[in-house]
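ARCHIVE CARD
Drawer: 12
Card no.: 0347
Subject: one protein chain, sequence and derived structure
Cross-reference: see card 0346
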Amino acid sequence: MDPALAVVQPLPKLGVVLAAAAAAGALCDRSERRRAVFTVAALVLAAVLLVGHIADTAQFHSISDDRRKLVALCLLGAFAVGLLAVVFIRRPEVLPVAAVAVLPFRIPVAAAGTTANLLVPLYGVIAAGCLASVWRALRAPDGDSSPVAPVDGRGPGLMRRAPSLLPLALTSFVVIYAVQSLYSRDFDTALEQSVFFLIPFALLFRLLAEVRWSRRIVVACALVLAALALAFVGIGFWEYGRRELLWNPKVIAANQFQSYFRVNSVFWDPNIYGRFLMLVMLAATAFMIWERRTRAVLAAAVFLSVLWGGLVLTFSQSSFVALLAGLAVLAALRWNVRRAALAAALGLVAATVFVLAFQSTLKIHLGSSSGVNKVTSGRGSLISGGLDLFGKRPLWGFGSGSFGRAYRQERKGNQQQAVSASHTMPVTIGAEQGLVGLAVYAALLAAALLTLLGDGAVRMRAPPPLDGAAGGSLVAVRAALAAMFCALVVHTMAYAAFLEDPLTWVILAFGLAVAPHASLAAARARPFAPAGEPLAAPAR
């Protein structure tokens, strides 16, 4: 297990473990005041770890050496976050809408000698939301400090109840990842994964899980997602018409040698762009198949046709497969599980037969490992290499974040190959974290699916009330969330980025709030609620 690595960089490693523990406390502790302390600790530790990580880079020195510039940036950032926190304190319902609005936006930032595309706007929203939450906890330590008060004045919010399996599973993943970074062959990557993704997104989950989701908030979030998707598709159409991309040199170079032209809109990667469109399409489809008003159904169909055009131009096979998986889940929930499963199986068999029968026409050759590797854009070698790594250390793996370095070191002839992950989530986890990490990953998937799909299988002892009266709208929302999560999991089998994607945490947080109030067993043949109908009834 490379025990000697555990004593290298002791302070940063201790900081990562403490930051993960603080995030765990923020997720699971029932005391409002202690959770506020944990939240502040997680934010401060993450910031200190990040600054310490990049302190010796030329990019950081270009800012820190100019004190006036550094002070100006710090003051500007603090002012922006403070102003946003004031908005969240006065208008708590703005928080989930703001979080959804900034989810897709990544800004190139130079860190640790390289340029990374970071979710800077989302980090600002998370920091402001945490400050607002801490302020409410200090102002009302003995009362309900949840962001949106219930209409009937009932008791405290979700995170002050006994935690369900889902927050515990998420907490376990974050903590185990931090612990297994202690002996990682690439601790720097593990630190970046924790600081940039796991810890801030855990705090985001906590903030969204506290929200008393009303129909107005849900509709606002849906409209924001729809507007963003249309805007991104419009940019994608412009890129395709001009045959030029805004950025990503790798895709630009690849387009010069392909018979087709891939677009990525404002996203860095066409697959991430495709994932976003695919998830929005599933949400719109859920609305359409539970809706009975003709005009609304036609409007959703037109919207879906536009997004489908944008998705096709990404040429993202992983997004296409994930979309089909999500549609299968929606069909099973809306109509019949057995028929949907049978149709999905028949479609899979037909596609397999078609590919095998027309390999020469499709210009693919599956009879050899090189042919499979070419069809999968090199993923075949990465998967086989990841399985080899897992076989060498099946119990504990090579450490969190270590896949790329361990892959190159164990395969001596690939020292210069750029590798960050296997692009297949279980393989990456197995190679990095072994059976320990795979067990936590499986438990997380089980808890998430039970929360999103199980009718009462995973419930809080006394779930928080949601604003309004129960109706078909809540069932459609829950079905959409279940389909989106299943599709996202399928997408991670070909592109990874599971808990590194904030959409995963948003879907799970919303699903945890909605699950106790809607029975999917009664979902079939139920229309979407009219515009004036509230979202869900207070829990009894």
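Annotation on reverse: The CA atoms of residues 59 and 110 lie 6 Å apart. Residues 1-163 form one domain.
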